[in-house]
Amino acid sequence: MTDNTETPAVVTARREIAAAAERIFELIADPARQPGWDGNDNLAAADAGQRVHGTGEVFTMRLTGDKVRDNHVVEFEEGRRIAWLPSEPGAEPPGHLWRWELEPVGGARTVVTHTYDWSGLTDENRFARARATTADKLRASLDKLAELAES
Question: Which of the ends of the chain has fewer CB neighbours closer than 10 A, N or C?
Fold first, then answer.
């Protein structure tokens, strides 16, 4: 159960990007590409060859502090939606979710919604970090993602 008296437990940012949904989705669904657009400055690297293709998959990411996270894919619709729950390697996820939703709006333009949901977070040691993940940080990821996708 979260203590969200000060900060909303679901944070969302949205932006229109001048690129096709398929191009944007490739940048999100390939973990090796994620550090290039991470606005939280949290992701260091991921091994190549982990491109996500469906729910139930797990990809591994190395964080900037040299910690490793398994990311359990819980939502997936090719080119449209992907969400994962991070965890310590080999452990059950403590309940915070990262989601990306893409909505083509005509031509090569896509509205991208990025959500961080920690309403199910059970590890109190992670609450401070969860509270620090604001809409501005999500927007920073969207801005970096747009820069890559539009180039």
Answer: C
